[in-house]
């Protein structure tokens, strides 16, 4: 499984998002970073968090020998306002076909 964090918007410029797979923290990802995690085939849940904010939990199935690709970024450009209004949707996380 691979996650790429987009460069824009500039919200959380110097901060990491924690990566949670199946309710277990497995690492962190910084702005403009691409990270890989080994994930067994099967059904999984992926979520990213920062402080009291997070992405919605994203469920996905992974077949043997398959790769799951995801991109993430902050939803808004004004960190404080968005985090107060929608803390459960602060980080945008989506599955993609390619990381280009």
Using only CA atoms, what is the Rg? 13 Å
Which residue ranges are poorly predicted, with pLDDT under 50 across at least 5 consecutive positions?
Answer: none
Biggest β-sheet description: 5 strands, antiparallel
3D shape: globular
Helix content: under 10%
Strand content: over 45%
Q: Indicate the mean pLDDT.
A: 90
Written overview of the protein:
The protein is mainly beta and 100 residues long. It has one helix and nine strands, in the order ββββββββαβ. It has one helix spanning 79-85, and strands at 2-5, 17-21, 24-29, 34-36, 42-50, 53-54, 58-62, 69-74, 91-96. Strands 2, 3, 5, 6 and 7 form a five-stranded antiparallel beta sheet that branches. A hairpin with a 2-residue loop joins strand 5 (42-50) and strand 6 (53-54). The chain is globular and about 40 Å long. The mean pLDDT is 90.
What characteristics describe this protein?
5-stranded antiparallel β-sheet, about 100 residues, 4-stranded mixed β-sheet, mainly beta, 9 strands, 1 helix
What topology does this entry show?
Blueprint: E1 2-5, E2 17-21, E3 24-29, E4 34-36, E5 42-50, E6 53-54, E7 58-62, E8 69-74, H1 79-85, E9 91-96
Parallel strand pairs: 1-8
Antiparallel strand pairs: 1-4, 2-3, 2-5, 5-6, 5-7, 8-9
Structure summary:
By secondary structure, this protein is mainly beta. Helices cover 7% and strands 46% of the residues. The model has no long low-confidence stretch (mean pLDDT 90).
